[in-house]
Specification:
By secondary structure, the chain is of the alpha/beta class.
């Protein structure tokens, strides 16, 4: 979704858009309501109390002064008693009022915490449903950043302001009815003087929001720089290449640019705010003169004089507070629109429901598969075809960027082909139930995840259903040739890996790969094993061991192996050479050697290196 409101050619449309933004009040209230009903009800009730009592306090003030004046004139004990009684009542009402204000603050701070968690959960839940393509799309990332940055505070702020609006309206109506006894003009004057400030506030809110929106990429870059500077996995390189100062400089530059824009806006905002508040002060004193003249003329009592002054002054600040609330609600809505834009991002429904194929012995077929990454112009795969039967092993060879990983992404349905078909057991991959499909595949990607969990959990992650089952961990590490070094660890499977948390142990690259390999074997029900350069970091001896193992334990499974080491590639039943996304050669090691083309050339080259 592009930001239509910024480019709308018709002012009327802009207004409509602004109005429709207020729809988020309802949604915010709903969100708060589902977060905690009791607190929401409490907040609503306290708001009512806090809205009605201030006018009562003003009215009691009038009664007190009139009673005092009367008591002074008549000098009776009863007169004094009446005045003191009013005073007592006012004290109680004020105590209740401040209690309700405190209660509102309490409810709000509890709700703030709950709501922050709730919104974060919503965002995380949403991100679970997203495609890989979303995560690789920078525009989408900006959307997510914007949603995450302000979204946990804005809904409550919006609800607070909505309730504040109700409270202020109640106060204002009660003030207004008191002031109306003085003059209708005074009421109108009070309202008119607040409008310019309101218009200014709303305009500034819009500008601030546009700034915020435009800045998402910069903010993201800032976060990224923070990560580079502060994360252990980057620390080694950043230190050795002495990139620290340069990165920090970039970080500062971004901040300074953002700050100078913010400062300008804040200064202008506060200047206008001051000028417009002068207008309110002028109106106040004009009315003051008027009320005082009425009192001197004896047309109103001394009690009336104080009440009207209080009511006018408070009414004025309540009314401008009310308008500021409306402006603030508008601002909150703008930010909330970000959140909902993210939460409502369309996720294509996974369409397949099939749990089995018609030809269970057919294995995997690629039929003229082509694929271009979104936003890219050159295809990553062109017309790729092959057939892998159950039990067979396919090795894919090719330079970096030739499309090997892309092929795996298509097979695991992280992406879907633009043309051609991929069949599993005689059924198009698109028809398969995604979970069933993915359960059948055990995969290690080149950039597999190094979970900062225990060894056991790192292996168990291969099959969440059996995540905690130690006997399965043993079996998997056995197959993944990681058993010997796991046994040597101080706490065995309970040893925490990585350096992020206390007591964590860092592994070598090769050891991590063996852990990842074990993770793939943890998926014991998977009959397709995909290994994307699983042994690039292990030594040659270990690699031979891994592949002998692999052959032994995967006799009935299909395996797709990506490797740059021809000594292991040659063991595969089929070898496929990819060049720029196209299949150049395909066959067994012997066939390809006989053909004497690229494969034979590369094989001989590498073999010569070992002689
Ligand atoms: P290989 O695994 O053989 O090294 P890949 O399959 O990762 O190669 O990449 C094939 C081509 O697709 C490369 O030109 C690469 O730049 C491009 N590519 C890979 N991933 C993406 C992506 N997420 N978005 C756009 N292009 C990509």
């Amino acid at each position: 979704m592009k930001t239509a409101q910024n480019r709308s050619p018709f002012p009327l449309q802009g207004v409509q858009k602004s109005l429709s933004l207020f729809q988020y009040c309802g949604r915010a209230i709903q969100l708060v309501w589902t977060t905690d009903r009791l607190l929401t009800i409490g907040l609503a009730l306290l708001t009512l109390i806090a809205g009605l009592l201030p006018a009562l306090v003003a009215y009691l003030g009038k009664l007190i002064i009139d009673a005092v004046v009367l008591a002074a004139e008549t000098n009776t004990l009863r007169g004094q008693w009446v005045a003191l009684q009013y005073l007592g009542i006012e004290a109680i009402v004020v105590a209740v009022l401040s209690g309700s204000q405190q209660g509102i603050a309490l409810c709000q701070s509890l709700l703030r915490v709950l709501l922050g968690q709730k919104v974060n959960e919503l965002i995380l839940e949403k991100s679970l449903t997203l495609d890989l393509a979303h995560f690789e799309d920078s525009e989408f990332y900006d959307k997510m950043t914007r949603a995450r940055r302000e979204a946990s505070t804005r809904p409550l702020s919006l609800v607070g302001r909505t309730f504040g609006l109700v409270k202020d309206t109640l106060s204002l109506v009660t003030y207004g009815s008191l002031l109306l006894q003085f003059s209708l003009w005074a009421v109108l004057l009070l309202m008119l003087a607040a409008i310019p400030a309101f218009i200014a506030e709303t305009r500034f809110a819009q500008v601030a929001f546009r700034l915020f929106r435009r800045r998402a990429p910069e903010t993201r870059e800032q976060h990224y720089l923070e990560t580079l500077l502060a994360r252990e996995d980057f620390a080694m390189e950043v230190k050795l290449y002495q990139l620290g100062e340069m990165l920090l400089d970039r970080y500062r530059t971004i901040f300074n640019r953002i700050y100078s824009e913010d400062r300008d806006l804040t200064v202008r905002r506060s200047l206008w705010s001051y000028l417009l508040s002068l207008l309110s002060t002028a109106t106040f004193y004009a009315t003051y003169v008027w009320i005082v003249m009425e009192a001197i003329g004896g047309r109103i009592s001394l009690g009336d004089l104080t009440m009207y002054l209080v009511v006018f002054r408070q009414g004025q600040s309540t009314f401008s507070g009310l308008l500021t609330s409306v402006g603030g609600m508008y601002e909150d809505s703008l930010y909330l629109s970000n959140l909902y834009e993210f939460l409502e991002e369309e996720v294509p429904e996974s369409s397949g429901y099939a749990t089995y194929g018609h030809l269970p012995d057919d294995g995997i077929r690629f039929e003229n598969v082509s694929f271009t990454y979104p936003g890219s112009t050159t295809p990553a795969l062109k017309n790729v075809s092959f057939h892998l039967r159950p039990g067979e092993k396919l090795a894919i060879v090719g330079k970096n960027g030739s499309g090997k990983t892309t092929l795996i992404k298509l097979l695991t349905r992280l992406y879907s082909p633009d043309a051609g078909r991929i069949l599993l057991d005689g059924r198009d991959l698109q028809e398969w139930d995604l979970e069933v499909l993915q359960r059948r595949i055990g995969v290690i990607f080149q950039n597999f995840v190094r979970y900062q969990f225990t060894v056991g959990e790192n292996v168990g992650a291969g099959d969440v259903e059996f995540f905690d089952e130690e006997p399965r961990w043993w079996l998997a590490t056995e197959k993944g040739t990681a058993r010997s070094f796991v046994e040597e660890m101080p706490e065995g499977f309970q040893t925490r890996l990585g350096r992020w948390f206390k007591g964590g142990r860092e592994l070598s690259g090769g050891q991590w790969q063996k852990i990842a390999l074990s993770r793939a074997f943890m998926r014991s029900r998977a009959d397709i094993l995909v290994l994307d350069e699983p042994t690039s970091a292990v030594d040659a001896e270990a690699e031979v061991e891994i592949f002998n193992q692999l052959r032994a334990v995967t006799q009935h499974q299909m395996a797709i192996l990506i490797s740059h080491r021809f000594s292991t590639v040659r063991m595969a039943d089929q070898i496929m050479v990819l060049v720029n996304g196209e299949v150049l050669e395909q066959g067994t090691h012997e066939e390809l050697m006989q053909a004497g083309e690229q494969y034979a050339r590369l094989f001989t080259l590498q073999a010569a290196g070992y002689r």
